[in-house]
């Protein structure tokens, strides 16, 4: 791998076997040294190794292999730049320096420092003594340090299911080079423009995530996610200056979005050598990400972000098959495998990167199922166990985020298979007790998704039509109390709540609809959209009489109007107001219930109504 350092770059290392004290001290030095690179120790105590396995994704360690030549020598301008560990109580000393420098950090990093101090003293009670050195402990507690974490690991109650630490690999790979050359011309050319601009800024550029995975699987993919080891916003602005477009940024996460506009397309199509079809696969926008690491001080909440290298960025991802990167600014292209994703692709496995993956972000539970179903993969046994352990964390996820994950599942070609697996893993019940999926329901959902929607709108509120139909059919098969609870949990709009609860009520009580008169049924159905009625029509299934009534409503009742209208009443000097609608509704009801069958009968009824409401009728 090509490396670039400035003269102030430092590598933070340890020469001895690492324990909690060493790990904490290294982390503290990293926080004190803005340009430091934290190198993973090569030997650990048993507990330290287990700790790193569980929390590797949260710590900014780099593998040493990236910074050594083939002879094992450190690739660095000068050995004076290496920072080695201290003597006994090193974590306490480093924490004291952090306190003096008033360094602010997140709760997890503070907890690691506290663990290192406790481990070096080997006596938690000793911290009750007043000492100048011990003043750092209140400082760490102010940063949100969790003393329970220290006790857990010092008392030996660490998880027994820890895996080995992931190993970083970077190799040329002819297969992916060939696949990359076969991508749509628009994607390929756009990537070349981006790489050329990034080279001028000396920013290494990587294609990451789903695009790399799908290239290796020989699948097409339109998602172009680029990570740069540098300032993504600076790169986006340079692209805008050279090629046009607009730039939007999200500073807390170090991301930028380069949106392609008319000026960009004008330059694209008028540039020398452009041929018809060269815009194939061209996206409307490109997401650029500064390589970063993430820490989840509070499970199920958004992470704290820190700038880092490409390995840190790959290790923050959800599954090994997505922790793959392709370096584009060098030839041959370099494939980066941070956590064994290549092997899992070959074996068809969905594997999480660490034991706390689903606790950190419970929405990964849904993604595991989505990838497994989409790719035809199996969820690895240990990953499935971790998923089960994280089910209680689903309650901590906002309804909007949960709804977003289910929205994506309903857009999949076979959502019923996804819902079946979600139910089998206990994920649906974790969203809301009573929410379930039964295999027999698959036929209903498949029939609804496949049935022609006719003139129904493409969008129903903030759901597209497919999502609305999917939710409506699925939830309608639950009892009304569960549907109400699910709608509240997922924060559906009032319009969607009205539709889904009505469908559940109709499906749960079909006999009540049979007992309604034509006019009563019409008034009930008039208050609902055609897309809601389309769902009910499919769910009515073999109930032929009910389906016939629904067909009669759509074809005759819904748009039926009597001969009398507002102009008629106005000409008869009927006072304007709510009485107009009352009279017209009663005339319509009489027609629908076959109490009126001719225009003459309607006029006779109108005269009776006018007399009833005290309106003089001289006509």
- Proportion of strand residues: 5-15%
Shape estimate: elongated
User: Runs with pLDDT <50, length 5+?
Assistant: 1-8, 126-130
The value of Rg in angstroms is: 32 Å
Report on the structure:
- The chain has 619 residues and is α/β, with parallel strands linked by helices.
- 49% of the residues lie in helices and 10% in strands.
- An 8-stranded mixed β-sheet has the order 5-14-13-6-7-10-9-8. A 4-stranded parallel β-sheet has the order 3-2-1-4, covered by helices on one side. It has a two-stranded antiparallel sheet with strand order 11-12.
- Helix 22 runs antiparallel to helix 23 (494-508) and helix 29 (578-592) packs across helix 30.
- The longest helix is centred in the N-terminal third of the chain and has 16 residues, at 185-200.
- The radius of gyration is 32 Å and the shape is elongated.
- The model is unreliable at 1-8 and 126-130 (pLDDT under 50).
Question: Brief overview, please?
Answer:
With 619 residues, the chain is of the alpha/beta class.
């Amino acid at each position: 791998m090509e490396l670039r350092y400035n003269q102030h770059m430092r590598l933070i290392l340890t020469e001895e076997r690492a324990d909690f004290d060493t790990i904490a001290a290294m982390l503290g030095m990293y926080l004190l040294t803005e340009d430091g690179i934290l190198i993973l120790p090569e030997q650990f105590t048993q507990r330290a190794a287990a700790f790193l396995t569980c929390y590797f994704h949260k710590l900014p360690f780099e593998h040493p292999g990236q910074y050594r030549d083939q002879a094992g020598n450190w690739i660095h301008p000068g050995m004076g730049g290496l920072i080695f560990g201290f003597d006994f109580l090193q974590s306490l000393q480093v924490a004291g320096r952090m306190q003096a420098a008033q360094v602010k950090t997140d709760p997890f990093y503070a907890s690691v420092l506290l663990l290192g101090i406790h481990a070096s003293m080997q006596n938690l009670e000793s911290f009750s003594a007043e000492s100048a050195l011990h003043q750092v402990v209140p400082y760490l507690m102010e940063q949100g340090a969790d003393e329970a974490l220290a006790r857990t690991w010092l008392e030996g109650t660490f998880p027994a299911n820890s895996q080995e630490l992931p190993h970083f690999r970077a190799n040329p790979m002819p297969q992916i080079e060939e696949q990359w050359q076969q991508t749509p011309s628009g994607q390929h050319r756009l990537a070349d423009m981006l790489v050329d601009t990034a080279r001028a800024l000396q920013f290494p550029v990587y294609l990451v995530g789903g695009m790399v995975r799908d290239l290796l699987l020989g699948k097409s993919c339109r998602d172009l996610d680029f990570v740069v080891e540098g300032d993504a916003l600076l790169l986006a602005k340079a692209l805008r200056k050279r090629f046009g477009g607009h730039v939007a940024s999200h500073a807390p996460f170090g991301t930028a979005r380069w949106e392609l506009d008319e000026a960009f397309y004008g330059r694209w199509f008028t540039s020398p050598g452009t041929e018809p079809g060269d815009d194939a696969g061209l996206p409307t926008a490109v997401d650029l990400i500064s390589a970063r690491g993430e820490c989840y001080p509070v499970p199920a909440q958004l992470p704290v972000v820190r700038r880092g290298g490409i390995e840190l960025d790959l290790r923050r991802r959800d599954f090994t098959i997505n922790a793959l990167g392709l370096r584009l600014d060098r030839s041959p292209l370099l494939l980066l495998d941070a956590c064994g994703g290549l092997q899992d692709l070959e074996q068809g496995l969905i594997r999480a990167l660490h034991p706390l993956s689903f606790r950190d972000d419970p929405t990964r539970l849904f993604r595991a199922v989505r990838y497994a179903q989409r790719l035809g993969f199996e969820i690895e046994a240990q990953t499935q166990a971790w998923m089960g352990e994280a089910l209680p964390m689903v309650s901590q996820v906002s309804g909007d985020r949960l709804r977003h994950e289910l929205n994506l599942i309903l857009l999949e070609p076979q959502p019923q298979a996804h819902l079946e697996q979600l139910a089998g893993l206990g994920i649906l019940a974790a969203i809301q007790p009573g929410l379930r999926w039964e295999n027999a329901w698959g036929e209903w959902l498949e029939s609804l998704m496949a049935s022609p929607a006719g003139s129904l709108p493409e969008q129903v509120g903030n759901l597209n039509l497919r999502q609305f139909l999917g939710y409506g059919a699925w939830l309608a098969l639950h009892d009304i109390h569960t549907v109400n609870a699910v709608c509240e949990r997922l924060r559906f709009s009032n319009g969607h709540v009205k539709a889904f609860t009505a469908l559940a009520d109709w499906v749960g009580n079909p006999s009540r609809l049979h007992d309604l008169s034509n006019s009563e049924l019409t008034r009930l159905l008039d208050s609902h959209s055609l897309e809601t009625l389309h769902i009910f029509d499919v769910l009515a299934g073999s109930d032929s009489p009910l389906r016939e009534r629904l067909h009669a409503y759509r074809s005759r009742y819904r748009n039926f109007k009597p001969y009398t209208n507002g102009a008629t009443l106005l000409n008869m000097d009927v006072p304007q107001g709510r009485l107009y609608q009352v009279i017209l509704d009663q005339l319509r009801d009489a027609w629908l219930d076959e109490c009126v069958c001719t225009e003459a009968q309607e006029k006779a009824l109108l005269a009776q109504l006018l007399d009833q409401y005290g309106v003089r009728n001289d006509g």
